[in-house]
Amino acid sequence: MAALMRCARFCVTTGQIPKLLRVVSTGSSQTSVNLPFQHPSAAIQRSWLSTLAEGVEAEEPAPSTSTPKVEALMITVERYMRQFGRVSRKQLDPIVSTFDKEGTISLSSSLSLLRLHGTALFDEPPASRLKLAQALWEKYKKYDIPLEVGHYNALLGVYNQNKMDYSPTEFLADMEANGVTPNRVTYQRLIARFCNMGDIQGATQVLEHMKKAALPINDQVFNSFITGHLRSNDPESAQSIVEVMRQTGLEPTNTTYMTLAIGFAERGEIEEVKKYINQAEIENVPLRPGQLLEVYAALAMNGHNQYLKEIMTYLQNGTPYNQDAIRICNQLIAVGCDDAAYQLFLEMPKPTRIEAEQATLGRFFLRALARHQRPVEKVVEFVKDMQAREVNKDNISAVAQLAYLENQPAYALSFMEKMKAEGLPVRAHFFWPALCQFKEAKNKEGIYDTLEKMNRLADSRDDFNQTLHTYAIPGLAATGESEADILSKVQNYGFQEKEANFAYFLYLLDTNKLEKAIDFLKDHEVNVAMAAVRACLMSYMRRDVDWKPMFQLLAQLKSKSTVWRGTALETTAMVLKRALMLQRKDGWADANEIFAFLEANDMRILRRNQQELAEYFSGAPDDVLQKLNGLVSSDTAGDTDRGLAGPMSFDLSLEELKALVRQNPNNKGAQKRLLLKACGVGDVEEAEKVKSTLEAEGFVFPPQVLGQLAYMYAMFVKDVEKAQHFIQELETTFPEHKNYQAAVLKLAALQVSQGQTDAAVDALKRYADRHKDIVEKQSIPKPQYFSDIVSAAADADAAKKLMDTLFECGYVPRDSIPVLDSYMDKLVDSGDSDRILAEFEEFVKTQRRSPKVDKVLQFFINKEDPDRLQKVVDVLTELYGLMNVFHHLIADFIECGHIKKARKIMETPGLRANMQRLNYYCQSFIERNMIKELEALAEVTKEMFGIDRDNMLFHLIRGYVNQKDFERAKDVLVQYEEEMLAPSARTLRFLARNLETAGLPVSFEVPDYQPPVQMEEKGPATKRKETPKSTVSQAAATAAFSQAGQLKDSIEKGEVEKVLADLQGSEKGALAAAVTQLKRPWPIEALESIFESLAKQGDLDTLKELSMNRLPVFLRNSLKANIFAAAVNSGRTEEVLDDIETVKTNTGKYFTFSSLDTLHSKTPELMDRVESIGKNLISEKNYTEPLSVLWCYYKYRNSPRAEELMNEIPGLDKSVLVGALCDVAVEEKKADVLESLLKMKKDLDEKQGTAFVYSSLLQLHVNQGDADALEKTCESIVKDGIARASIRKSSVKAAENLLTEKNKPLPAWAEESSDSDSSSSSDEEKESKR
Amino acid sequence: MSGARSFKLFVGNLPWTVARREVSEYFSKFGTLRSASVVFNQETGMSKGYGFVEFAQKDGYSSAVAQDHHVLEGSKLTLGSFYSGRQSSSAAGNPANQEISQPL
Predict the structure, then answer these.
(1) What pLDDT shows up at residue A449?
(2) Which of A723, A786, A1206, B48 would bridge with A714, disulfide CB 3.0–4.6 Å?
(3) What is the 3-state secondary structure (H, E, C) of A1092-1154?
(4) Closest Cα partner for A194 from A204, A186, A184, A185?
């Protein structure tokens, strides 16, 4: 104390104070209280900002330093630190590992990084922070990072903050040994260290040293001494320091008062604590929330929880403190003060409006518990309390998830036990993260332990096999476990030998060990699941894998399978397709061998596979196609096994089947299929015909046919007796057969419609009794079947009886919307108000369903029954909230003609437009031609908050257009003006297109099509136009973003099928986003096949989105071609033609033969449009390419239009590029086309062009093996004076080979003439290559 | 164009406790499903929190989209309607095809 007094006297010399303060008080209160930004913790702030005081140049780390990655990471973390006053271990780890990789770090970053290992590292306890800091220090030494005094001071700071007991003498000696001289900060921190230990004597010695060295003393030193005195049990001296400070001219700061409060808090003297907190207020340096929370933590950590509430009262002045509270909670949990932390969590200000079902507050708290592996029972207690208080709905499974996120698999597994005990679901996939984390840690026992727990705890064996092959086996293999051990040991955990073997086999396949997988199969018995094999083989389909091992693998699997159909056949087809693709490149060298192998092993494919392959390889030699045809399985199950589920179910059309039967009149299978198909689609005549043919031949109808016949008589013939007859026959002949539910249901519907309700009920019950398992699956057929039965009822009572039967028998769940809808329909028709209300209320309450809600509302509106209407509204409000219900009411009032009442609802304060609902009603009015109601809806909602007026008026225009009232449609534009609103491009384009179609003039400017992605980028204003949509689109954008990465990976791996499959359900923009992330070089092949597939699907929008990306020219061209193809396929050709016309570029790339072909067959009238675009481009821009392509197409189709065009457009003959046409002609063996082109080129006297066409002609003859024709062509080439060098080399060689082979003389090639181009790279060639 | 007519939905905000079976069970009540999936990160074993369901018919799809809230194991799901979302973005193309969900 005396020393401090002396020092104080020493440091305060008149006139020196202001300067001293300015230099040393960077982090102290005198300046900081005036700073606009107040850091949560002064201690941290000081350590952070005191660079100046330490004599280190404060430099903002520049992003462009020599080691960019670690520096960039540091910048991010520092920014975070400044914002939240804390960093997590997860943020630091990647920096340290990057530093480790790069081996270098800038001076300032090395300092900052070290400093982050103090209290700022909120989610680690002091001991582990110290360990990390020391490890980092060692790394600095290892990589020769220059260590200056600042680094030593930072290390001291970290030591102090983590309460480490170290020897100051040794530390100073180490500094000295490294040639670093301690500075003022070093001494300050050493003083702090002594004081923290309560060693005043040691601190005083350092102070004396500082004095001798004439180093200035600042408030931090005084604060340290306060702590020192308190810890050495001398509170009086501590208290008197404030006075000493004042004497030296230093004003106590809020840190001073915090230090005092903390010191007394440690001692549990709450009155003193409060005294100093109050004193700080009086002195106008109030403790900040973060500082108050430090006091809170000091009380808690020293076991004085009884006073915690008193500290909290100081926090309730409205200053936000949640970020500090999160830090303190973490610190408390790290040292085991869970209750104090929880108390703080409960006190933290919470959002005012949270729905109990959605509340997830306090995840940080649960996460901290998981991170520090707090006792399970305690955690369960917290979770339950949070649930009870409705702050967090999570059950303990959330903690298990958080434990995984914290990489604590063993702890997570202990929660699985608890979950099981609590009756919560436990599923196989809950164990997957544990398997991954144990794999990462190379913890073999951990993996086995996880399997043991999964086997014991999981509710079902769902996903068990996937667990084994995707997670457990790769994990075990990674730990070095041998194959034999894996296979035998996993059997201890509920896996059979064959399952284990199969999983191991899949693992080998997955890890690209094809040969090993084949060998493995040879001497292991397996349970084959072909779907899993198929998934594994997908990745092989993009590689050039030899066909042999692939088919050997399948053959082996076949020999081990009891059933080989459906997926197995499709897999065979998939492998075959890849093999044939490679064969095509190699000139079909091994094709015969492949087919021989398949035949020998009786490996078949489905009919639809054959058709697809035949189409894909349409240019293949005939014998290949024939053999392909011979591979088709006689078993049609795979072709039809999709049942009623989807459009793929009968992939041969009725006409195709008829043709098939005509061609093979003795093929019973085909006849059976035809009969099934005819029954299914209701071609009664055909069905009867085939049926009698088959009957005459003594064919025994299989159960499927009987069921289908019953279906036909019930559904199409409406003959109850006949339908019943076939069902009876089916049930007596094939009592085991189950799948005729559709027939039973259709028959029931028919019976009901004929008034035989009771008979229908009996039939339904009988089937349900016989085949309870099928009924309870509730998987077939579609809900419509059930609703039809109820709808057919004559009155509400009958409907109810039927509905109850369906529910009781378990055909449909009790909340099935279509069924409830049908019933409610009947009920409302009955007009029984009480019953309608009662049952509607019942459905809402018990099933959370509101069947026929609009009809019910309208019923009471029309009845003018406000009481019941109110009741319906009340009960609906509970279900959907007032806003949604109001939307119903608005539309229903309008529909019932009560526009005033609808308007009244609009006066509700806070009413917000829900565009999804409004769009629905608009659409509904348009569909029902209710234009008055549509007008009223648009009018009434005019002032609605959050309304998308453009959308509403757009619907209005659609309504008028739908009624062909174009004048009023145009008038809506005036309404736009009245409302000071600009119609969107979409609206204008829609109106313009329809006006044009109607032959009316378009008097306004029509904007270009802009893909939606761009529109969204325009800014938040357009995004937020309507709230409900914007939340959805935000979610969608997030989803798109998250999908993009995955899509990108798949594209790069060339997994086109996967991309397409994922894309099916992905958000719009996901693919475009993925393409922007692609690394160069471009995966051209994959992208092109994606484009092609999208075009086939008619997915114009995705392709358009893609066209906004920067792509290399060839990809852009491919994209253009596919955009047009997609437009043609989706019937949106006009839209794209509009675009082409407006952009006016040389757009020949859009048109391809195949898309023009489709266009020609689908909408021939649009060919004229394409033509006029082509002509305009020539006349306006002299772009010939588009028309040239069109001409070639006409030529290819042998259309007279080609000739006409030539006559119409002078000079077109000179500009057409015939490359593509020649190629197609060669491929399709159209010698006549080539001859005609040849004539044209000769007439034009174009030597290059002539030579080019000749090259193609030669190739064609070679392909056909026609030596005579070849000889003739060669002769005419010679005659025409075309040099050998002008002809494409490959064609010449092939021609010469064939001629030699057939013992024909080689042509006497003309001498190379000076004007012929020998480079064989004419425009046509280039064009062709492209 | 069976691809374009696919009744497929993106299902987001799935809790980690949910896998294919749960999603499938939940959405089957709206109609027959052709497929259901939940996407997992094979490196970490964790669910990515989203998946897809594909309905066999439009009815099921429409019923699912028409419902205001979907809550599965305590999480409010977000449905990214592949089919209708796409339509709304391209309403200019052919608004007559616009798929508009039914209310409630």
Answers:
(1) 94
(2) A723
(3) HHHHHHCCHHHHHHHHCCCCCHHHHHHHHHHHHHHHHHCCCHHHHHHHHHHHCCCHHHHCCHH
(4) A204
Whether A284 contacts A30, CB under 8 Å: no
Residues with Cβ < 8 Å from A378, sequence gap 6 or more?
Answer: A338, A369
CB B98 within 8 A of CB B89: no
Rounded-to-integer distance, Cα A48 and Cα A50, Å: 6
User: Of B17, B98, B24, nearest to A951 (Cα)?
Assistant: B98
The number of beta carbons lying within 10 Å of the beta carbon of residue A660 is 17
Provide, as residue numbers in chain B, all residues whose Cβ is less than 8 Å from the Cβ of A458. Answer: none
Predicted-complex ipTM score = 0.82
Each residue's pLDDT tens digit, A378-436? 999 999 999 898 888 888 999 999 999 999 999 999 999 999 998 999 999 999 999 99
Q: What is the DSSP string of A366-398?
A: HHHHHHTT--HHHHHHHHHHHHHTTSB---HHH
Give the pLDDT confidence score for residue A1227 in this predicted structure.
81
Band (pLDDT 50/70/90 cuts) for residue A40 is very low
Question: DSSP string spanning A1040-1105?
Answer: HHHHHHHHHHHHHHT-HHHHHHHHHHSPTTHHHHHHHTPPSSP-HHHHHHHHHHHHHHT-HHHHHH
Q: Which two tokens stand for residue A1157?
A: 């072909």
Residues 193-232 of A with CB under 8 A from B: none
User: Within A928-1068, where are the H helices?
Assistant: 931-940, 949-962, 966-978, 985-997, 1012-1017, 1020-1023, 1027-1053, 1056-1065
For residue range A154-191, what is the model confidence (pLDDT) as tens digits? 999 999 888 888 888 888 898 989 889 888 889 999 99
B33's enclosing H/E stretch is strand B33-40
Rg (CA), chain A: 41
**R_g of chain B computed on alpha carbons:** 14
DSSP A781: S
Of residues A553, A567, A639, the one with CA closest to residue A601: A553
Q: What is the pLDDT of residue A652?
A: 66
Q: What is the DSSP letter of A1283?
A: B
pLDDT band at B16 (very low <50, low <70, confident <90, very high): very high
Q: Could you tell me how many CB contacts below 8 A there are between chain A and chain B?
A: 186
By residue count, chain B amounts to 104
CB spacing of B80 vs A1036 below 8 angstroms: yes
Smallest Cα–Cα separation from B82: which of B3, B1, B8, B2? Answer: B8
Residue A472 confidence (pLDDT) above 90: yes
Tell me whether A781 touches chain B (CB under 8 Å). Answer: yes
Inter-chain touch B16–A817, beta carbons under 8 Å: no
**For the domain B7-103, what is the CATH code?**
3.30.70.330
What residue spans define the domains of chain B? 7-103
Q: How confident is the model at residue A1067 (pLDDT cuts 50, 70, 90)?
A: low
Token representation of residue A1142: 């407006």
A94 cis-preceded (ω within 30 degrees of 0)? no
As a whole number of angstroms, the distance between CA A1004 and CA A988 comes to: 8
CA dihedral A365, A369, A370, A374 (to 10 degrees): -170
Q: Are strands B75-76 and B78-81 parallel, antiparallel or unpaired?
A: unpaired
Give A239's Cβ-side CA count (13 Å radius).
10
The pLDDT of residue B82: 54
Q: Note the pTM of the prediction, 2 decimals.
A: 0.51
pLDDT for residue A1113 is more than 80: no
- In A, which residues are within 8 Å of B46 by CB distance? 401, 404, 432-433
Q: What is the pLDDT of residue B95?
A: 31
Which carries the bigger pLDDT value, residue A477 or residue A1146?
A477
A165 HSE (CA, 13 A, CB side): 3
Tell me the mean pLDDT in the region A870-894: 86
